[in-house]
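A reminder before we start the practical. When you read a complex entry, don't treat the lines as separate problems. The point of joint prediction is that each chain is placed relative to the others, so the output describes one connected object in space. Small molecules and nucleic acid strands, if listed, are placed in the same frame. In the example below there are two entries. Take a minute to note the order of the lines before looking further.
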Amino acid sequence: MSADEDRRVKQLEAGNREAARMWRAWRTIHQMVQDRGYTLAEEEVNMSLREFKDKHCSNDGHVSKANMKFSAHPSDDMMRKYSTPPTLREPNPPAPDIGPIWCEFLEADNVGIKHLRTFAQYLSANNFHTGILITSVNITPSALKIIPAVANETRIETFNEQDLLVNITHHELVPKHVLLSKEEKSALLERYRLKDTQLPRIQMTDPVARYMGLRRGQVVKIIRKSETAGRYASYRLCV
Amino acid sequence: MASSQMPKSILKKKTAYPATASSQAKADRDRETAVYHANILKTRKETELDVLLSTETLLDYPTSSQPADNPSVEDATTLKALLKPFQPSDYDALIIERNIENRCGFALCPKPNRKDTSGQKFRFIGQSGRAENFKIVHTAELEKWCSEACARRALYIRVQLSESPAWEREAVESRVKIDLLDEPKSVEMTVAEDLQRLNLNDNAFQHNQQGRADLAMERGDQGFTARNGLVDVKILERNVQRQPEAPSSNEGELSGQFSNMHLALEGHTPSFDTRNKIGHDGDDEMMDWKM
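Here is the predicted structure of the whole assembly.
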């Protein structure tokens, strides 16, 4: 085998490995978006590695992240979950604070203020309510400060490719988390005569909370297996 | 018989709790405290946003293509103004952000930063043959700048920045002026600067300002938190009514003073009730808090 051919084989192998990595991240992000309640076609979510390679890899096996992006719209179920129930004082509550989502893989060695600023501008220009940016490197701390600065226009979430290689919610030690709607939350608080601050808490930076895109004040129902009771449900308030 | 007399209750008398008047006062005080802390947080948030926006502006500097050793006057003045609320860590973040944009870390330099193509992690740098002149430096450290001169210029600014965050700086500290290693060298600027310097010495207003700043420093003025603090501190001059009197040089008094001068704290000699103390000393270890 000549040195030239050897190099080509090695390159192809590295490309394959990279493609497999990206495919796994791609699959997880789709599952995440679907689990949150956005509508996605099944074939998009369950894309096989071969299909992924056909779509996003160039001839030499290199993954091009430039067209690894997609959008999704919230389903009716999700709209209902995020809606505010009408009360006596406010018979016409505001529309649910949810809208189309945009996911994008970013190909850059360093992610700085400029990248996030362009991303935020793209989101607000195209009326995306939420944006998910997936990077291969850590974002600089000053760039992360952009997120709260543009929070009233658009909601930005960032993930690292490395964290998306496996879907953590499929792990057997991670119990099932179910988001409660506002109506369900008030029913829960009334049932147990609690204030919401008296519930146990979950942090917004918790991996599962990040996966579900929890917001401050939302309550999740956590359903665990229990040896004595079969199933055990607990509730946590996102802080 | 005392049958007509009501038996005295042994229970504690009920006090009206919460007392309406005092609870109102308490609510007011609580509100004041909450507003005070909210204000601190607000200023802090505003300052942080300010720093972020300044960083974004300085990313695209300089606006003209003048070299770093002779920057344009406007750029230099805006840079000085924008860098005021920065801490050294914010300044480091600015350098990193500029490098991501392939610019030299010094905000007034139009050149791109140096790129090391060899892929080495560390580099030797040094001028002459002596061993102590040589240093091993991380390549990333070298790639921050376009040249050594720019590194000097950028770090010259960094050491002038205050370590304390802008929202809790003292009044004096926040008026610190930042100098550049290479100030703009255009003719009008030098003249203008000379004029300004001339003004500085003559102007009574400037002098007054300086005096006020010194006074604030002497009083231990604590910046925003103290100026708008919860405790209302008023400084009053002590009004001495009696006639001034020269210190006496009585022999006996003086010798008495000498004997316990080593005990004096800023002129005051504390006196303990020594007799009492000795009497109790050996008695009871458990009672030693009783003086």
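Discuss with your neighbour: Residues 279-283 of chain B have pLDDT under 50 and may be disordered. What might explain this?
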